[in-house]
Amino acid sequence: MLTNDQLSQWDRENFLHPSTAFGQHARGESANRIVKSGSGVYIEDRDGNRLLDAFAGLYCVNVGYGRTEIAEAISKQAHELSYYHAYVGHGTEASITLAKMVADRAPAHMNKVYFGLGGSDANETNVKLVWYIQNVLGRPEKRKIISRWRGYHGSGLITGSLTGLTPFHNKFGLPLSEVVHTEAPYYFRRPRKDMSEAEFTAHCAAELEALIEREGADTIGAFIGEPILGTGGIVPPPAGYWDAIQAILKKHDILLIADEVVTGFGRLGTMMGSTHYGITPDIITIAKGLTSAYAPLSGSIVSDDLFKVLEDGTDKFGPFGHGWTYSAHPIGAAAGVANLKLVDDLGLVQNSRDTGAYFQQALKTALGTHRFVGDVRGEGLMAAVELQRDPANGDDFDAADKVTARVVGEMAKRNVIARAMPQGEIIGFAPPLCITPAEIDLVVDVTVDALNAVTGGL
Asked: Cis (ω within 30 of 0) for the bond into 227?
């Protein structure tokens, strides 16, 4: 049993944590961390340990911790108007202003924004939008959604189904029948090692075509994908992937949802990941970087063409029957306005591009030839190091050895936070966009030290 004071005891007795082994936590068999404060790229726990957060919480604290401009905007909004709903035409200065700011940063053909609270509820909204639009168009059978294996789109019922990671399906009876999955654009795990990127892209496209043929294009409403796979391993797409996928979707009249919960607002060195990869979506999902997690908020950005269908639908059938109590919550919206101003004022998109390039090169230089590293990959300020027992032969570690979890644990002892990604031996990085090259050097040095400490005896 770990030593517990009262707060830690309450944590174990009363608090159910997401993605946690409940029994181990309740019995005190696993560590906990009670976080007290943060500044820049650092957090501090209540024991006084100061750690560089190289995962920005959960990819989300883009502007860094301790930004008083956002705290003051939240306070001002709470004092003036803590809440009002957004139903039947109601709005606030903050929510209306933020909608305009988001539209100004989105691709030119997308100008309408529906706000929710988190990425999961935004993707629930997106699926309902797709179903509604297909019904208005007289195509109610176009109901299935194609997702990708290893994609992450949330952990609700439909969004957990969209997610292509088995821990989010097991023992929940998911995925639901409306969701089908196709090949992950995961070049490192391609079917044959002699495949070029172009050949693997053609393979992914062929797999999508075959799936559409099996299911029937007239039953498929939309395809959803992250510009770069996030929680599924931080995997950039192979060259030409998005061009090939979009051509197939257009041919079969299938809508495209770009899930930019992680990549939106600078993470890849461009304002939106869709721009980075030449994607022309019908709907974009946004969340994390929208407020840098200073307050919960998400959004669905809808194309002008789809809005015309929505407009026609509500003219014919009455108000759109969907909404959340906290849609466009004014405190979240105020945080979003202040956050996006900071992203601009601090030049964080440019810093993500420049410091991100430095990060990618530094990781490859330090770890690209390490005897237990199979792959170093990423884009902008997203990066991953995939571990293998024998990279030359493609032999993986036994999952029971928990090598990555141990490496990440050793990194935490050295005051750097990285993430052991699910369903694989993958160290993940997504630091705040304000990180400096000197702080990148620290992250890389600690990663090397921790990896050597764990694998030194192997």
From this structure: no
